[in-house]
Design goal:
By secondary structure, the chain is mostly beta strands. About 5% of the residues lie in helices and about 45% in strands. It has 1 helix and 14 strands, in the order E-E-H-E-E-E-E-E-E-E-E-E-E-E-E. It has one helix spanning about 50-55, and strands at about 15-20, 25, 60, 70-75, 85-95, 95-105, 110-120, 125-135, 145-155, 160-170, 180-185, 190, 195-205, 210-220. The protein has a 6-stranded mixed sheet. A 4-stranded antiparallel sheet has the order 8-9-14-11, with no helix packed on it. A two-stranded antiparallel sheet has the order 1-2. Strand 1 (about 15-20) and strand 2 form a beta hairpin. The longest helix is centred in the first third of the chain and has 7 residues, at about 50-55. The protein is elongated, with a radius of gyration of 25 Å. The protein starts with 14 loop residues before the first strand and ends in a 9-residue tail after the last strand. Residues about 1-5 have low confidence and may be disordered.
Length: about 230
């Protein structure tokens, strides 16, 4: 279960002294540390982001081929005048404790940090295959073509619009005998990379449902084995 903790109030930054390879802090109020041979943490400062700025930093991501959930992330600039070093990070959202994350690098002042904020269960996403059929072409059926079609359904259960990035992919052939053609989406509907990654950037109105279509075909000589598509 998640802890039901309130976020600390914003406090002034302690006096900061920068050395050649480190930082030192002078606290405004004295702190008593027990003499018990144990390690103790001392609170330095905190920063609260106003609501307008916070809304601009939040974004939703989903890869329905890999997960049935929509994830909320924040690209958050380091708000302090000193680096945030590698280690444990407690994440609060709307004043409530969300999770603890591990920073795997040091972030300099104003450098963007990608902070995961967990799953948003009020947004549902489902990916399912709606068609798969084989066509035979050429004289005496020398060529086979398999058509795949998938449908991605997103339901916004929130009372506000959301901006969502959805990623999927289609196979890219490295064999001259195998030809892959993407039928949907078009380049006007999504970003399509050369390595087969498809990125939709969409907005969904409150309580609305949106459907995305992924459709492609694979053509190859009859008798050739094709694997790793689904």
């Amino acid at each position: 279960a998640k802890e039901d903790r309130e976020a600390p109030e914003e406090e002034e930054l302690p006096e900061l002294k920068e050395g050649l390879t480190s930082f030192s802090f002078t606290l405004k109020d004295p702190v008593t540390i027990p003499s018990d041979n144990q390690s103790h943490r001392v609170f330095l400062t905190s920063k609260i982001v106003d609501k307008a700025q916070k809304e601009g930093l939040l974004n939703y991501h989903a890869i329905p081929k890999l997960s049935q959930y929509v994830y909320l992330n924040s690209v958050f600039p380091n708000p302090f005048d000193f680096p945030i070093f590698m280690g444990k990070l407690n994440v609060y959202l709307d004043g409530r404790f969300v999770s603890s994350e591990q920073l795997n690098k040091t972030y300099t002042p104003n450098e963007d940090m990608l902070i995961p904020l967990g799953i948003d269960e009020s947004i549902k996403i489902e990916r399912k295959r709606v068609k798969k059929f084989t066509e035979y072409t050429g004289i005496v059926s020398k060529t086979e073509k398999i058509v795949y079609e998938y449908e991605i359904t997103i339901k916004n259960g929130k009372t506000r619009d959301i901006a969502l990035v959805v990623k999927d992919n289609y196979p890219v052939s490295l064999n001259e005998q195998i030809k892959v053609q993407l039928e949907a989406p078009s380049e006007k509907e999504a970003e399509i990379s050369k390595d087969g990654i498809i990125t939709w950037k969409i907005k969904i109105e409150p309580k609305a449902t949106k459907k995305l279509t992924l459709k492609f075909n694979i053509e190859y000589p009859k008798g050739l084995r094709i694997s790793g598509v689904e």
